[in-house]
Design a protein that fits this description.
The protein is an alpha+beta fold and about 350 residues long. The chain contains six helices and 18 strands. The protein is globular and about 65 Å long.
């Protein structure tokens, strides 16, 4: 996780988060003192209970964040935006029930709103001057505080199962100190996931099969769970594997953008139900609207690619003779190619059978 944290965050439980922040600082100070003493005795302090406790509390801290913001007085605003994007990417990594993240960057008197989703990053082109346009600043802050969870990027089709109380609740409504939130990793909570078969059914996770790409931006961010039916959680008879991912789609050739589930339907067309690869598949919807990056998360807003200088090497081949061929590197300055376009991605899932429980 990042060695540093945002200058500020928007949260639900302000007092609990401040208390958790104090606990983290206390542990870090204690570990710093212990590390200095151990170095004098040449002892190894890795993998101690204090380190594990610190990691657990850090994860609980990141799970509770709605919006991060960064404040700088440096004139290099691009560097500050890159910093806040780092925080936003980490939030997407720690919060499996997050579809996108909004953030703010304040440089001197200017404010920019930043959005990070699975299609990339979008930043306000023209900043808002807080002193010149105070009404706009107030409108943005008030808007964030009044947004519904799905407008802030939360996935409302996922909830955390609280075993102690035998109930489920959205993660953003839970205090970071509640059992089930402060765990060894973001994958340990039992998630309850809505899946549409013939109707909306709920499945509870017992493990995660694959999540290697869940931390990446501009990808499918695939996560595959092992689940049982929620209604059969006390006496399960079979396991399933829901796969949730962000599939790329093209606005020009939508007929070519078959989902993975549609491809399985064609492959399994004449197979009996028990031999099919997929039980059900669908594009996930938010309040009845297709969940997508460019159309829903960004509300159809289109941006232009930011061109910036990058360091590169021009490789020259000296081929005076076949026997004396060698490479010559020459430093050059160039810009990113401007042909890149944001790729629209739709949130999809499919439910696969796994096996019977004996």
């Amino acid at each position: 996780m990042p060695a540093i944290c945002p200058d500020g965050v928007g949260v639900n439980f302000n007092e609990e988060m401040m208390f958790l922040d104090k606990e983290i600082k206390t542990i870090e100070e204690s570990m710093s003192t212990a590390r200095m003493q151990s170095s004098l005795r040449e002892e190894n302090t890795e993998n101690t209970p204090e380190i594990q406790e610190l990691v657990d509390k850090h994860r609980a801290w990141w799970i509770g964040i709605h919006i991060p913001y960064e404040i700088q007085q440096d004139e290099d605003s691009l560097q500050g935006i890159e910093q806040v994007v780092t925080y936003m990417c980490h939030i997407l990594m720690e919060q499996l029930d997050r579809r996108f993240v909004l953030g703010m960057f304040i440089c001197n008197e200017e404010l920019k709103v930043v959005l990070c989703d699975r299609s990339g990053v979008m930043v306000m082109d023209k900043p808002i001057n807080i002193n010149v346009e105070p009404d706009e600043f107030i409108r943005i802050i008030a808007g964030f505080s009044m947004m519904a969870p799905e407008q802030l990027g939360w996935d409302t089709s996922m909830k955390i199962y609280l075993e102690e109380w035998n109930k489920m609740e959205s993660s953003y409504r839970l205090s970071p100190g509640i059992q089930g939130v402060q765990t060894k990793s973001r994958y340990h909570p039992h998630w309850v996931i809505d899946v549409v078969v013939d109707k909306v059914e709920q499945y509870i996770t017992i493990d995660i099969i694959s999540s290697i790409h869940s931390t990446e931006i501009c990808t499918r961010a695939t996560v595959v769970y092992e689940v049982i039916k929620y209604e059969d959680r006390f006496n399960p008879t079979e396991t399933f594997a829901p796969k949730r991912y962000w599939r790329p789609v093209s606005a020009n050739n939508p007929e070519l953008d078959l989902s993975e589930g549609e491809i399985y339907d064609m492959l399994d067309k004449n197979k009996p139900q028990g031999l099919k690869h997929v039980i059900a598949h669908q594009d996930i919807k938010v309040n009845g609207v297709m969940d997508s990056t460019l159309q829903l998360a960004r509300c159809g807003l289109k941006g232009k690619r930011l061109e910036r200088k990058i360091n590169a090497w021009l490789i020259l081949v000296n081929s005076d003779s076949e026997s004396s061929r060698f490479l010559v590197k020459k430093p050059v300055e160039r810009y990113d190619p401007s042909i890149f376009n944001f790729v629209e991605r739709q949130h999809a899932q499919l439910l696969m059978p796994m096996g019977k429980i004996l």
